[in-house]
Amino acid sequence: WYKGTANAIFQNMNFIQMFNPRNVLILSGDHIYKMNYAKMLEAHNKSDADVTISCIRVPWDQANRFGIMETDRNLRIKNFFEKPENPISNMASMGVYIFKWEILKDYLVKDEQDEKSTNDFGKNIIPKMLKDGRRMYAYKFKGYWKDVGTIYSLWEANMELLHKKPAMNLFDKGWRIYSKNAIQPPHYTAKGAVIKDSMVTEGSVIYGKVKNSIISSGVRIGKNSTVEDSVLFPGVVIEDECIVKKAIIGERSVVMEGSQIGVDDKILGQTPSKMCSDGIVLIGTDLIIESGTKIAKNVMVE
Q1: How far apart are CA 156 and CA 246, in angstroms?
Q2: What is the value of pTM for the model shown?
Q3: 134 plus 15 within the same structural domain
């Protein structure tokens, strides 16, 4: 396990050192965007930066969710605040860094020796480098970028793929997105099934109705079942006579016959999750929702 983002790199230092790199590109795994890292590296080398941080303007009401920076006219970073309560800027760190490897190694070792550190780039490494007067520069990014670190943002990012002109265009032939292929047969749409404004992946079998949803590979939706505004991960089974609204359902989970997910505002005995909002229901992986079960909006099932 990793104690923090910086500790994750620290634990893999020996592997990185095998390549004896001059620079190291570090990325976050919960962000969605398309970036040409070569251009960022070019800017990094041109400014002779010890670290270059990719940044983007975010709405002011969301700025307190991110590391916020101030720069001079040459984009040299003057101030950095990790998730400030009262942001003085809306220039947010994207969690995309290019470090000079020899310098980063030194800071990682010292950070690991600090018992008070949370071993985090935004909270520890970046502020320490700034305090030490290191050459730190911002790289402005203007394309689509989405932090999907919350349940709502993950759901929203998937729904945005269904827009008529999505900002993250999966069909852009000029910049293809390659991912692991499930290697399954084409999806099957049965007689009487209805699919509207949705993405349906290979291997899925649809007998019911699907509207405004993302259907991953190997999903089965039974007869007289309705799935709306939802994200179904690979291998999910929705049996007959079910209603699923505004839900994220994890891999291989089964919703058995006659169940209703996300229909009722409240159900006695079910406590809304602090992590769920806007009516979204989250069902984890490898779960079985018994026949006739009702799960209210904003509930998490793990």
Answers
A1: 10
A2: 0.89
A3: yes
Assign 245 to helix, strand or coil. strand
- Domain that includes residue 10, residue range: 5-147
Q: Phi/psi at 300 (nearest 5 deg)?
A: -110, 130
Closest CA to 44 of 54, 35, 34: 54
Taking Cα atoms as reference points, which of 66, 56, 52 lies closest to residue 24?
A: 52
Residues 269 and 202 in one domain: yes
Q: Residues in the chain with pLDDT < 70?
A: none
Over the stretch 53-65, which tens digit does the pLDDT of each residue have? 999 999 999 899 8
Q: What is the CATH number of the domain that holds 107?
A: 3.90.550.10
Nearest CA to 40 among 112, 98, 84?
98
Alpha-carbon Rg for the chain, nearest whole angstrom, is 23
The domain that holds 267 is classified in CATH as: 2.160.10.10
pLDDT at 245: 99
Q: Is residue 194 located within the same domain as residue 130?
A: no
Helix (H) or strand (E) holding 139: strand 136-140
Token duo for residue 4: 């923090």
The torsion defined by the Cα of 12, 17, 22 and 24, in degrees rounded to 10, comes to -10
